[in-house]
């Protein structure tokens, strides 16, 4: 049987422990009297709310901090207030801070047992960081679905241009050639020749549009052949010398990864062609053990990266970074006036290996 001294010692230890918990726990704890006045608050509440403990205790009413419970109907949040209940194990509320901001918090409340004064204890946990992470995750998913839908739509339109409009133009061209072979009069021959030229140009334009929308080589042959085809078009259209250097094993990657890398390189090359006044452009493709690194370097006039992005002229750059981020990768842009531009893309390889429908060797 324990003595009263032992009981007293145990009681003091328990009280000291509770004081330590109250002072150091990361969750905000406050005690409210029967009128709603805060009579006790820990340091976590002071940090969360922006008010000091002296400003809170005996000075603040709970309604000055509470902006309402999260309920299905906003109007009932005060009618069905937690303060009117003996206990609410879990609910959400919005906490007003000293500087006027709102914090979403997860809360619980309970009235102290054997307390005739009706004091209520509340525990609050800041949910701002968690909600921010959830919002970013949701936006990440939305972006992924939007890009996926965009690529599918591009693929469909490219196929329709090639198989529909392209084939129709080809049939017209064949018919015009048949007419031309029938030795029509000189005037008719001149018109037919003009129509043949116009139809040929239209076919080339349709083919170019289909390639820009979604190159068939990307799906059929893989990333590197698609990039080589893109390089030839850039060289022909913009008269820029483009070189591709490949290090490491040539292979196929996931469809999402190949599409993202192709679009990033395409955007970088388009920016070079439009704005850089470059004469040469080099692409280094490195297949490493754990990641793929693509470096695009031009000898153009360069630009101030931060200044350009800050004034909202970097939507293409934003798209590049967003595509890389969806794969857990990064896009780093280095440039300065009269020093050219370097774009470094890093995308990690999946740990489980490359085992989807594009796992065969690249050609």
Automatic annotation (TrEMBL):
Entry annotated with the keyword Zinc-finger: no
Subcellular location: Cytoplasm
GO molecular function, one term: ATP binding
UniProt KW keywords: 4Fe-4S, ATP-binding, Cytoplasm, Iron, Iron-sulfur, Kinase, Metal-binding, Nucleotide-binding, Phosphoprotein, Transferase, Two-component regulatory system
UniProt PTM: Autophosphorylated.
Positions of modified residues (Phosphohistidine): 162
Reactions listed under catalytic activity: ATP + protein L-histidine = ADP + protein N-phospho-L-histidine
One Gene Ontology cellular component annotation held by this UniProt entry: membrane
UniProt-annotated binding residues for [4Fe-4S] cluster: 63, 66, 78, 81
Nucleotide-binding recorded as keyword: yes
Cofactor comment text: Binds 1 [4Fe-4S] cluster.
Residue ranges of every copy of the Histidine kinase domain listed in the record: 160-351
Cited PROSITE patterns: HIS_KIN, PAS
Cofactors (names): [4Fe-4S] cluster
EC number(s) stated in the UniProt entry for this protein: 2.7.13.3
Start and end residues of each PAS domain: 14-65
Cross-referenced CDD domains: HATPase_UhpB-NarQ-NarX-like, PAS
Entries under InterPro entries matching the protein: HATPase_C_sf (IPR036890), HATPase_dom (IPR003594), His_kinase_dom (IPR005467), PAS (IPR000014), PAS-like_dom_sf (IPR035965), Sensor_HK_TwoCompSys (IPR050482), Sig_transdc_His_kin-like_C (IPR004358), Sig_transdc_His_kin_sub3_dim/P (IPR011712)
Role, per record: Member of the two-component regulatory system NreB/NreC involved in the control of dissimilatory nitrate/nitrite reduction in response to oxygen. NreB functions as a direct oxygen sensor histidine kinase which is autophosphorylated, in the absence of oxygen, probably at the conserved histidine residue, and transfers its phosphate group probably to a conserved aspartate residue of NreC. NreB/NreC activates the expression of the nitrate (narGHJI) and nitrite (nir) reductase operons, as well as the putative nitrate transporter gene narT.
Name by which UniProt lists this protein: Sensor histidine kinase
